[in-house]
Amino acid sequence: MKPIGYYLKHLDTLINQSFDRALSDTDLTRRHWQLLNEARNGTLPDDPLVPDLVNRGWVAEGTLTPAGEAAFAATQTRVDTVRTALMGDLTVEEYTATVATLAKMAANLEKAHS
């Protein structure tokens, strides 16, 4: 079995490639999608792509505008296709356990380096 770092990097590359294919006829990236989703949840971080979303009229004052909601909705089906492929035959429990394990590993390293 390869080490976890290999799988983390490999999976991240595959997710990016899947988003690139799903959004190929748009000028959006995976990071655009992540930021739209975060703005929708009211947790928009400081990111170099935020001004692009503001210029498109999709984000104002850290949250989605009506145009941003429309862009989010138009992209949702494409992202759902990527998520469905990613999940494959994983159960919700397996996914949740994997994410929880990764979060704990990240917290362990953060604690070790603080």
Describe this structure as you would to a colleague.
- There is one protein chain.
- It is built from 5 helices and 2 strands, in the order H-H-H-E-E-H-H.
- With 114 residues, the protein is mostly helical.
- The protein has one domain (4-89).
- Strand 1 (59-60) and strand 2 (63-64) form a beta hairpin.
- The protein is globular and about 45 Å long.
- It starts with a helix and ends with a helix.
What value does the Rg take, in angstroms?
A: 16 Å
Quantity of strands, as a count: 2
Helix content: 55-70%
Task: Return the average pLDDT rounded to an integer.
Answer: 95
Integer tally of domains: 1
Q: Strand count, sense and closure of the main sheet?
A: 2 strands, antiparallel
Terminal Cα span? 30 Å
Describe the global form. globular
Q: Strand arrangement, largest sheet?
A: 1-2
- Unreliable stretches: none
Assess the beta-strand content as a share of residues: under 5%
Q: What structural class is derived from the secondary structure elements?
A: mainly alpha
Protein name: DNA-binding MarR family transcriptional regulator
Sequence-ordered SSE layout with sheet pairings:
Layout (H helix, E strand, L loop, with lengths): L3 H19 L7 H11 L9 H6 L3 E2 L2 E2 L1 H22 L4 H21 L2
Antiparallel strand pairs: 1-2
Helix pairs in contact: 1-4, 2-4
What keyword list fits this structure?
114 residues; mainly alpha; 69% helix; globular; WH-like_DNA-bd_sf; WH_DNA-bd_sf; DNA-binding MarR family transcriptional regulator
Summary?
The chain is 69% helix and 4% strand.
